[in-house]
Design brief:
The chain is built from nine helices and 15 strands. The protein is α/β, with parallel strands linked by helices and 293 residues long. It has a seven-stranded mixed sheet with strand order 3-2-1-4-5-6-7, with helices on both faces. Strands 9-8-12-13-14-15 form a six-stranded parallel sheet, with helices on both faces. Helix 1 packs across helix 9, helix 5 packs across helix 6 and helix 7 packs parallel to helix 8.
Length: 293
Amino acid sequence: MSPAIFAFEDDHAPAQRLADELQAPLHPVHLHRFPDGEALLTVAGGHDTALLYRGLDRPDDKVLPLRLAADALRRTGVKRLVLVAPYLPYLRQDKVFQPGQPLSRDVLGAVVGPGFDRIVTVEPHLHRTHDLRPVFGCPVTALSVAPLFAHAINGCGATLVVGPDAESEPWAAAVAQARGGDHAVFKKRRFGDADVALRLPDGLDVAGRKIVLVDDICSSGATLITATRELHARGAATIDVLVTHALFSPQTASTLRQAGVRRIVSTDSCRHPTNGIQLAGLLASALREEIAP
C-alpha cells in the first residue's frame, strides 16, 4: 500500500510534475456533476498515505469538492492525508474589517482543515497571521519561492529587487539576499481595491537601472501597475514582474505591459498564461518524508 498522489483533472499537469519528482504514482480524482451542480467524487483505493494536489484559485467552485475528495479517500482506508495546495485562498480577510463581514480565514480553516493531517502551501498571503496551525487545526508548511525567484532574476540580469509595499519587505529582502543583490520597497496607501498611492524611499535613484518587481499575489494588479508607472516615470531601464500567485485577467496583463513591464512571470501555483516557474521541485523537497518507505 505505497503512498500515492491524487489530483483533479484540471491540476493534472503540475500534479504530474510533482509525481515525477517524488517518483510516486498519480491517480485521478474523478468529478461528476449532477444536473443541479452537485459534485460526486470517485477515487481509487489501496493506499495508507495520500497526497491530494489541488490548486485553489476560483475557490468557491473547488473547496467543497476538495472536502468530498478527502472524505472519499478516508473511506478507502487512507490513514494519512496531506493537502498540497500551492495557493490558499481567503487568507487576506484575516479579521473583520467592517461590521457585517465574515472572518473568511477562519471559515476556510474550519471547512478545509479537519479533512487533512497536514497542509503544504507556498507563500500564503499573510498579514497579521503568523501561524496557520490554529486556523486549520493541523500542521501547515509554508514554502518560500525566494530561491526560485532569485534564479529567475539572475536569468534577466536585474540589479534591483523592488517590493510593492511594506508587507512585501521580508520576502523581497529574502529574494535579494538569495541572489546577493539589493532591494527596495514602496510605501503604499490603499484607498480601494484598484486605488493605491505609492512612494519610493527618499533618495532612491532608479534611473537607468534594471528592476524586478516581486509580489506574492496579483489579482486586480492595481499595486503593480502603479509601481510600474512610478518606476518608468523615474527612468528605470527595464521592469520585469515576478508573481507567485497569478490571479489576474488578460486585461490586467495588457495594462501592465502598456505601463512599461517588459516581462511577467508567475509560478504554476495557479494555471495562468504567465506561468514560467515550476514549483514541483520545491514542493517535493517538503513532501519526500511523506512517501519514504
